[in-house]
Input
Amino acid sequence: MASLVNRMVRAAKLDVSLYEEVEADKSALGQAAVVVLISSIAAGIGAVSQLGVRGIVTTAILALLGWVVWAFLTYIIGTRLLPVPETKTDLPEMMRTIGFSTSPGVLNVFGFIPFLGGFIALAVAVWSFVAMVIAVRQALDYTSTWRAVGVCIIGFIVYIIISIVLAGLVGTHDMTPGAS
Output
């Protein structure tokens, strides 16, 4: 557990060597999933007044699913649309680095604090985006941070489109018992 916490702290500190380390460590996929889970549970706790206790579980499940989809999108975009000659990666490498880039999300546990919760969420979102760019840059062996930013922005747009389509298919009406 100390190794996981140490890695999460290093990931949150934007330590480039950590992202290289987890990219190469094939046994770190489980740890990356735990990081995503911890961050999502923290976000659920921080938003418990809006989401309820059931929302924590839903947030965790959606975060894990989102992590896999996001890793797949960035992998495809980075290796097919914006590769460089040095690009050599696979989906598990992308999943490991991106999983650890969610480490700053632990601070979302403080989202319940009146007036500060929104600022905390914004700061965590920006911090996580920067960590994600570093994770993508390292996993795709880019020398250009801007290319990694491009992968993340294109991926985000595609991710949002997929989310909107899925929300439309599933429906966004209130599904609580007794609701009409």
About this structure: Residues 174-180 have pLDDT under 50 and may be disordered.
